[in-house]
C-alpha cells in the first residue's frame, strides 16, 4: 500500500484510553469477495458516506482506490470535498442535494450530482455551470427521488441544455434484504420501465446502478454497470438476523483497556441501579470505555468482551465512560490489558452484527454510533500504518 503515512504509534504502546481499530486487510478481503460475486462487466461504486460508516472515509477510500475501485458515493458535498482534500481522484456521486456553491465547486472537481427532485434542475440552470448528474428514480423507497410519472417533465427539462449531462440513473432497493423477493422484483421492473421510456425519447444514460449490498448478493445485476455496496464493505450483513452468501470480515474494532482490578466479596453490587450483584468472592475488572465512546447501553448485563483471548460478560449497566466485567475468583487480568468490545482479538471476533442482534438493531447503527472523540488506528498487514488522534469534541 502506498501514499499512507506510517505512524510509529501502535495501540499496544498507547495509554489506557479507548481506541478504534480499522483493519484495511479485512476491507480488502471484503471488496475482493464482492468483486467475485459480480460479472466482470460490472464495476463498484463504494458507498463511503457518513465517514465510511464510522470507519474513516479518506483512508477507506484510499485503500479501495488502490484496490481498483473507481467510483465513490457520499451523502453530502462536504463529504466529497473531504475526499478530494484527502487525495481521492475517482468520480464521486453526491446522493443528497447540493446548493449553488457546491454545484460550482463540483463542476471543476469531477463530482456527479443526484437529481432527486425536478426543482433541482431549476437551480442547476440558474447556476450556469456544467452539471453531470444521475437521476434518482423512486421505485418504492418513498424517500427522495423522481416519481416514475415525472420522467416526461425530466425529458423536457434537460433536452437541449448543454450544461446538463444525464450520465446515470439509479434507484434504492427498499427490501432487498427481505425474504420475500417480490417487492424488489417489482422495483427493478419499474426501473426498467422508466429506463425504456427515457430511451424512447433519446435519453440513454451510460451508467445504471441499483445493487446495494443485499441487492448485489441476491439479485442479478443484468443491466447495471455499477453496484453500490455499503455495509458489506465493512463486514456486516444488511440484516444481521439473516444469512447472506458472502463471507465477510469486520473492519471496525472498538477497544479499551482494563483500568482497575479489585477483589470483592459476595453480595457486592456493581454499577448504577445495582443490577448485578456478585454471588461469591471474585475479581471485578473496570474497563475505560462506555456509551460515551460507542458501547451500546443495551449491552448491560448481556454483552461480552474479549480479554486475553477469553470472553467475559459485562457486569452491571454500561456507564458513559466505563464498563465492568466479573473476571472470576482466579482472574489473571491486569491493568492495561486490551479489551475488545467489537472487532477481533487474536483468532476471535465480536462482529458489529453480533452486537446489533442484542439490541434488535443493525450493524449500520452500531458502527455509526462509535464516537469520533477517540483515537483511531489503521492496520495493514497486521501493522499500524496510520494514527489519527481523537478530536477534542
Written description of the protein model:
The chain is an alpha/beta fold and 393 residues long. The protein has 2 domains: 24-234, Alanine racemase (TIM Barrel); 252-373, Beta Barrel (Lyase, Ornithine Decarboxylase, Chain A, domain 1), CATH 2.40.37. 25% of the residues lie in helices and 25% in strands. The protein has helices at 24-36, 49-53, 57-66, 77-85, 100-107, 119-127, 151-158, 182-200, 213-218, 352-358, 363-368; strands at residues 19-23, 43-44, 46-47, 72-74, 92-94, 111-115, 131-136, 164-170, 207-209, 226-227, 252-264, 269-270, 276-277, 282-287, 304-307, 310-313, 323-328, 338-345, 348-350, 375-380, 383-388. The strands form 4 sheets. Strands 1, 11, 14, 15, 16, 17, 18, 19, 20 and 21 form a 10-stranded mixed β-sheet that branches. It has a 7-stranded parallel β-sheet with strand order 3-4-5-6-7-8-9. Strands 2-10 form a two-stranded parallel sheet. It is elongated, with a radius of gyration of 24 Å.
Helix content: 25-40%
Tell how many strands the DSSP assignment holds.
21
For the residues shown, what is the average pLDDT?
94
Continuous helix count = 11
- Please tell me the total number of domains: 2
Q: CATH class of the largest domain, anyone?
A: Alpha Beta
Question: Largest sheet, described in full?
Answer: 10 strands, mixed
The radius of gyration computed from the alpha-carbon positions, rounded to a whole number of angstroms, is 24 Å
Strand content: 15-25%
Structural class: alpha/beta
What best-fitting shape do the alpha-carbon axes yield? elongated
- In CATH, the homologous superfamily of the largest domain goes by the name Alanine racemase
The CATH topology name of the largest domain reads: TIM Barrel
Q: Unreliable stretches, pLDDT < 50, 5 or more residues?
A: 1-9
- What's the CATH architecture of the largest domain? Alpha-Beta Barrel
Amino acid at each position: 500500500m502506498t501514499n499512507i503515512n506510517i505512524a510509529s504509534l501502535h495501540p499496544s504502546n498507547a495509554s489506557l484510553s479507548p481506541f478504534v481499530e480499522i483493519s484495511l486487510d479485512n476491507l480488502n478481503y471484503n471488496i475482493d469477495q464482492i468483486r467475485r460475486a459480480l460479472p466482470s462487466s460490472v464495476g463498484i461504486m463504494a458507498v463511503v458516506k457518513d465517514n465510511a460508516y464510522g470507519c474513516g472515509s479518506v483512508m477507506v477510500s484510499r485503500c479501495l482506490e488502490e484496490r481498483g475501485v473507481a467510483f465513490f458515493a457520499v451523502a453530502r458535498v462536504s463529504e466529497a470535498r473531504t475526499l478530494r482534500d484527502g487525495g481521492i481522484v475517482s468520480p464521486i456521486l453526491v446522493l443528497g442535494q447540493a446548493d449553488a456553491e457546491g454545484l460550482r465547486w463540483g463542476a471543476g472537481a469531477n463530482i456527479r450530482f443526484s437529481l432527486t427532485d425536478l426543482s433541482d434542475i431549476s437551480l442547476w440552470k440558474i447556476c450556469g455551470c456544467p452539471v453531470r448528474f444521475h437521476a434518482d428514480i423512486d421505485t418504492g423507497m418513498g424517500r427522495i427521488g423522481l416519481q416514475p410519472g415525472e420522467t416526461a417533465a425530466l425529458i423536457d427539462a434537460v433536452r437541449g441544455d448543454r450544461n446538463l449531462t444525464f450520465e446515470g440513473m439509479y434507484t434504492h432497493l427498499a427490501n432487498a434484504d427481505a425474504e420475500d423477493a417480490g417487492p424488489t422484483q417489482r422495483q427493478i421492473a419499474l426501473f426498467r420501465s422508466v429506463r425504456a421510456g427515457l430511451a424512447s425519447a433519446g435519453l440513454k444514460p451510460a451508467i445504471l446502478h441499483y445493487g446495494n449490498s443485499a441487492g448485489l448478493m441476491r439479485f442479478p445485476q443484468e443491466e447495471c454497470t455499477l453496484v453500490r455496496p455499503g455495509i458489506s464493505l465493512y463486514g456486516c450483513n444488511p440484516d444481521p438476523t439473516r444469512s447472506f452468501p458472502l463471507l465477510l470480515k469486520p473492519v471496525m474494532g472498538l477497544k479499551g483497556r482494563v483500568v482497575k482490578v479489585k477483589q470483592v466479596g459476595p453480595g457486592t453490587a456493581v454499577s448504577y441501579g445495582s443490577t448485578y450483584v456478585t454471588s461469591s468472592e471474585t475479581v471485578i475488572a473496570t474497563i475505560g470505555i462506555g456509551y460515551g465512546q460507542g458501547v451500546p447501553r443495551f449491552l448491560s448485563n448481556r454483552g461480552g468482551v474479549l480479554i486475553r483471548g477469553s470472553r467475559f460478560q459485562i457486569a452491571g449497566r454500561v456507564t458513559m465512560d466505563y464498563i465492568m466485567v466479573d473476571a472470576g475468583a482466579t482472574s489473571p487480568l491486569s491493568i492495561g490489558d486490551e479489551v475488545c468490545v467489537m472487532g477481533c482479538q487474536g483468532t476471535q471476533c465480536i462482529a458489529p452484527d453480533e452486537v446489533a442482534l442484542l439490541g434488535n438493531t443493525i450493524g449500520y447503527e452500531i458502527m455509526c454510533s462509535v464516537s469520533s472523540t477517540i483515537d483511531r488506528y489503521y492496520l495493514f498487514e497486521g501493522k499500524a500504518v496510520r494514527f489519527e488522534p481523537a478530536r477534542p469534541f
